[in-house]
Amino acid sequence: MKLRAFKYASPLIMCLLAVVSFSSRGFLTFLPVIWAYVLIPVAELFLKPDEKNMEQAEEEVAKSDAIYDYILYAIPISLYLLLFMFLSSLRQLDLQPVDYVGRIVSMGLLCGALGINVGHELGHRTDKYEQALAKLLLMSSLYMHFIIEHNKGHHKRVATMDDPNTARENETVFAFYIRSITQGYMHAWQIANAEVKKKGVAVFSWQNQMVRFTLYQFAFVVAIFFSFGIEITTGFLGAALLGILLLETVNYIEHYGLTRKQIAPKKFERPLPQHSWNSNHVLGRIMLFELSRHSDHHYLASRKYQVLRHHDQSPQLPTGYPGMMILSYIPPLFFSVMKKQMKKFNVA
Fold this sequence. Notes:
- The chain contains 15 helices and two strands.
- By secondary structure, the chain is mainly α.
- The longest helix has 27 residues, at 97-123.
């Protein structure tokens, strides 16, 4: 079982490639991006998806095996060390524009694939230590409000017109960015404000999570500014934005065009496996800590990543999440592919 667990350490390959990126020039600065958006998608065109689930006994062992958690706990340490290395690397003399772009894009990939993605996994845990790590990871992309909107908003409204994180059929990823980012942020404030009002506390108080998150993130950016200057702070903001866009691209493909049936005014059927797009392509699953087994995540949000299951009734994507993310940037082609998949799995 422990050997099986170590496959989830493979995302740390991106960390090693980032070290090369932040200490090199030219095309080598793009190595993490080449790994995630070229090598993995190409490999998944030839590798067959694996629909196998663990046996019940195996699942029980995996759930209690702490090594799966330790792998996640290593991510915040790795990410912030790499963030410091990234910021320091932008101080190097005689950097060319391609060096800046390659390093910023690579850091953005880390912020999204490791920071927000692992923050998402730990954000569903109930342990206070794991919740704190989740918030620390989300701060790397200045997206701490995600833990509020995702857990208390998206999981309740998924696959409905009330959910800004559910993409409509024939909506481009670029239009989705605007709606999902702006409305998701506003919904997070609404949720946090409602919580403190129930306690009889003023909205603009320390007990309001959104107030705290805003101040934490402002202080974080200010600390980078005074430590590294305006030019490098701008580079960090660019990387954070790319991390956000990576997350929102994943959001886009996860529920594209899927809807839940309304059974009463403002009441919908519970989220079922057919309300999320899945991919059993192994490399993408491992890279994103099983995020692509998304139906089971919505079916039981407390289930840990290592024991997420395949459901036969889940609509399947033709390739892994990394490949589908690239496809989403070509809307006509993406629409054509997804229309065929929706017809194939009879979902809408």
